[in-house]
From TrEMBL:
Signal peptide: none annotated. This is DUF503 domain-containing protein. It holds the Pfam family DUF503. It comes from the Bacteria. PANTHER family: DUF503 DOMAIN-CONTAINING PROTEIN, HYPOTHETICAL CYTOSOLIC PROTEIN. It comes from Candidatus Aquicultor secundus.
Amino acid sequence: MVVGLLRMELYLPAANSLKDKRQIVKSIIGKVESKYNVSISEVGNHELWQRVTIGIAHVSEKGEQTKKVLDHIDRYIENLDKAIVSERQVSMFSPE
């Protein structure tokens, strides 16, 4: 079993308030959840209007599959045109 974590820091140029930010983040999270079988949540920069850190976790039998899914999600979020990815970090764990 392999657990993959993708941490992304996003810049939200269209967010002019925390309300705008929440709407954009909720949209991104909803789209990723409906398209991919992953856990995703806002994990940082909660009080900043135009910045958000999201965490995404995927578990599979093989590391290649997990890496592939996380790469697809990374590209998918970039192509949504709702946010600019300013930082990303991928971590892989095998808890055995």
